[in-house]
Amino acid sequence: MSLDALRGVAVLGILVINVRVFSMPETTLLNPTVYGDFSGVNYWAWLVGHVFAELKFITVFSALFGAGIVLFIESKNRKGQPALRLHYRRTAWLILIGLGHAYLLWYGDILVAYGVCGLALVFAHDWEPRTQAGLGLLFLLVTPTLEVFAGLTVGGEAIASQWAPAEATLRAEVATYRSGWIEQLDHRVPTAIDRQTTGFLGGTFWRVGGTVLLGMALYKWGVLTGERSTRLYRRLVAGGVVGVATVLAGVWYIEANEWSAGAALFWRQFNYVGSLLVAGGYVGLVTLYARRRPDGAVTRAFAAVGRTAFTNYLLQSVVATTVFYGHGLGLFGAVSRAEALGMVVAFWAIEILVSVAWLRRY
Length: 362
Description:
Elements: H1 2-23, H2 40-52, H3 56-78, H4 83-104, H5 111-121, H6 129-153, H7 160-163, H8 167-177, H9 181-196, H10 198-220, H11 230-256, H12 261-292, H13 297-307, H14 309-324, H15 337-361
């Protein structure tokens, strides 16, 4: 039950960040000051999401994907079925669906990245967990090492065009996504290609791949399945508090440097590191709660969402693009951060109710 509840919390939580890219130009995820009101309640809506959600829930989700690889292969092996062949077939379908999701609906798809990592890293499924975790940590060091090196050598020029794009570029993106589905392809297709090629090799593979490997190890250690001591999960929660402080220190750093591109590559590392700790804190919190109230309404609600996580993830994209894109209500670029966050809360309620009702019937 705790594993399903954890997956449910993760899939709900990632919408807090995804809604920003659904509703505003892509660059706002990197630099929130370039578009939209960034004061008062909208600043606080951004801050809450940045500190408690950005990279945190996707980290939990990625770790659970790694755990799922091991769980799937172990299950098939126990039944005497060709586990690896079935894994490759299942993963190929995941990539195919992800490609459709990315090019037909939303460029921010994560399924293709998961599928490729699942194919590339399945060789490690039967390793000792310490080895899996060690390789995972090495993977996780790649991106921050490269970014800090770029910051020290090239400086802000390394990301200047992405950090502060021209006003005309932002207006064009807004106009594109307020247009029809065909017109949206002008931005969605090249953006998806970039994310799945240079973006994947330069960053996503190392972050997602490293977390997948850690997820394999954490599953084998019994951490993700709620089998460890209460003391361990409390330590994870305490680590999460340290992670929150780390992320807040990063916010102080970038604001002290007036959101300059030169400071951005260093700022990103505060959240990169802090998110791993906060994600661990969520694992601890959800596990402790699920252990205390295994049959409680909250635990069962999150578990229902977790058991239908794949459908809920895709449903989020369907609903969000219908609300924000031009083939639907066309609200792209017109909704504030606080309003978008309110929409997220409303959709959480719908997802939970639908997931619970669906599993009661089917």
